[in-house]
Amino acid sequence: MGQKKLIKFAAIKEYENVLEYPEAMQGKWAAFFEELKKGTLNIPLDNLAISPSDPIGVSQGRPLVLELACGRGEYAVGLGRMFPDQNFIGIDLKGNRIWKGASIANKEGLKNIAFVRTQIELTPNYFAKDEVDEIWITFPDPQLRWSKAKKRLTHPKFLRLYQQFLKGGGAKNIVSSNNTVSGISSASGIVHLKTDSPLLYHFTLKVIELYGLNLIYKTENLYAEATIDPRCLIKTYYEGLDIAQSNKIHYIQFNIDKELPIALDEVLKEAIKDIPMDAGELIRMEAEAAREKKEQ
Ligand SMILES: C[S@@+](CC[C@H](N)C(=O)[O-])C[C@H]1O[C@@H](n2cnc3c(N)ncnc32)[C@H](O)[C@@H]1O
Fold first, then answer.
1. CATH number, domain at 36?
2. What's the structural domain count of the chain?
């Protein structure tokens, strides 16, 4: 590892707003942010209070929002500035990238922003049921090859993980005694996907359609819309790179408001075979394949 990376990895170990693989934090994030705001996190994380599961929810009225695959955490920081009464956690495996967002939050004294270094696959270990209100997935690797579809962060395999801690995840359909479904709770947690990859966009729409999830909003060309959610105007590092060369930012907002039967995964596998790749993505895939070959 290069010297600069080592310095950043060492720095985040000292930062109060960065936790690495934070076991035993389920249900404690509200208490964590309270302590962070006081100035020093001088009690061991094990001693943080677990928020009671009251009618307001475990976040005690302060929504908790995650940015997955956050890289440098532009969304965690940008949203944290916009919404001081909400708490934000950026999650990524790469400590040197997290360092950037965590350093900005520290410099600006933003005590409602934290970062977790871990694999996204492990997130159910760190958050309690219903603890998270919203998830932003910003410019994740689209995993263009069909054989890698399971690695896409909006694959049902991942959605089932998010469901374990996203507010109302999966249990939103209120099934009555005669087995009829009476509706979706307005308290459903929301997932936002912002991507420059048409393939990932169409793949995610296929998942939403096949598993019957609630689609709130979609656009293939975000910046051409007449009105734009100000949150969507936050730009990330990868957005600036325009790797997919699609010149369009795609955005989807949806709820994971249903159970996601594993039996449908095989149907999905077939259904996504025909999603076309545009020219930019083909170039990107070839570059990725060349890089992987070099690394072998
Ligand atoms: C293409 S970058 C996007 C970063 C940032 N969101 C942006 O738009 O600039 C994808 C990020 O996802 C992270 N990542 C990919 N798979 C991951 C996983 N399974 N767990 C944690 N982080 C992951 C990578 O480390 C990388 O920082």
1. 3.40.50.150
2. 1
